Amino acid sequence: MPFTAVIFDFFGTLTPSTPAHVWDDHAARSAAPLGIPVPVWRAALDSSFEERATGSLGDLRSTILTLARRCGVDPGETALTAACSARAEAQRELFTLRDDALGTLGAIRERGLAVGVLSDCTAELVRAWPELPLASLVDAAVLSCEIGRRKPDPELFLLAARRLGVTPGECLYVGDGGGRELTGATACGMTAFMLYADDWESADAQPREHDWAGPRLSRLSAVLDVLGAA
Ligand SMILES: [Mg+2]
């Protein structure tokens, strides 16, 4: 069946992969206004990823407040606002796209295919999404913290297809392999490709599908070659 839609993972796929030291730097920036030691704050962020990615801690302000209290700090309004701003700003830097991302999305749409994004993400991406340059090129975005599920939950993949108005079998899925997304997409009937770009090996912040034996792309724009051959 020819593809009628392409669904992309966001972090490490449409954006470059993020090395672990960047996460430390980002944690330090939101820890400072709260007066929480960076390792303690980093641990609170890391251990709450499941909760944050499924939306159970609420919006950014609610999330930061809950995590600060878990660290033994009850921040005042000024400190909380400053920490939220620092966190949002730091996260926003991670929303910078790969050089070939917008061109690739535009070319896919020019071919008449729909474009979806499926991301395991936290409240910061939801908040920033409408202002991101790719938003107008994406027909449907499924963001885990809005749905309350994480990859590889099949419902996320099926929801993305439904929102695009296509069947899973018509979807090409492209991701760097976080959250066992490639296996998850395949199990739902999609055709999955791993984006194995130059930065894949050097960025180890999140566990990925090292055992993926399926097809790979060496750069994002190579998805156009796959579509051309389909
Ligand atoms: Mg990813």
TrEMBL record:
- Which source organism? Streptosporangium jomthongense
Q: Which Enzyme Commission number(s) are on file for it?
A: 3.1.3.-
Q: Which Gene3D superfamilies match?
A: HAD superfamily/HAD-like (3.40.50.1000)
Q: Name the keywords, alphabetized.
A: Hydrolase
InterPro entries associated with the record: HAD-like_sf (IPR036412), HAD-SF_hydro_IA (IPR006439), HAD_sf (IPR023214), S-2-haloacid_dehalogenase (IPR051540)
Q: Does the keyword Disulfide bond apply?
A: no
Superkingdom is: Bacteria
> Per its record, how is this protein called by name?
HAD family hydrolase
Is Cell membrane one of the keywords UniProt gives this record?
A: no
